[in-house]
Amino acid sequence: MSNWKRRFSKASFSPRRRATLTLVAILLLAVAWMGYIHAAGLSGISSKDMDWNGDGQVSGTEIAQSYYAVVVDKTTEGNRTCTTYKWWRGGKEIRVECRTELHPDAAATEKK
Predict the structure, then answer these.
(1) I need a labelling partner for 74 at 20 to 30 A (CA). Which of 41, 88, 95, 108 fits?
(2) How far is it, in rounded angstroms, from Cα 65 to Cα 71?
(3) pTM of the predicted model, to two decimals?
(4) Tens-binned pLDDT, residue by residue, of the chain (112 aa)
(5) What is the spatial distance between Cα 52 and Cα 66, in angstroms, rounded to a whole number?
């Protein structure tokens, strides 16, 4: 029993190991939070499309905003998929991108 206590006591974690574990826990919480708010940076958008202010240039600030300030709302109606980018606070729309995709199964049934 004393062997178990010695192996898993606080003294077995060095300050460096505790700092590393804390950093990993903080990073996991940050990624979980970004997933919870549906952050644009995790939605698959490329960095060249992260021009949130519409000036034609993508800055590092805009790329960072895609991970904490811009959220994505995806809706699908039939073959049409729309992606709405909004500010996390306030919900003001930045832009809407819609695509119509023809699915192979749908194309085969339309020919019949």
Answers:
(1) 108
(2) 9
(3) 0.69
(4) 555 555 555 567 788 999 999 999 999 999 999 999 999 988 888 888 888 888 888 999 999 999 989 999 999 988 899 999 999 988 889 999 999 988 666 555 555 5
(5) 9
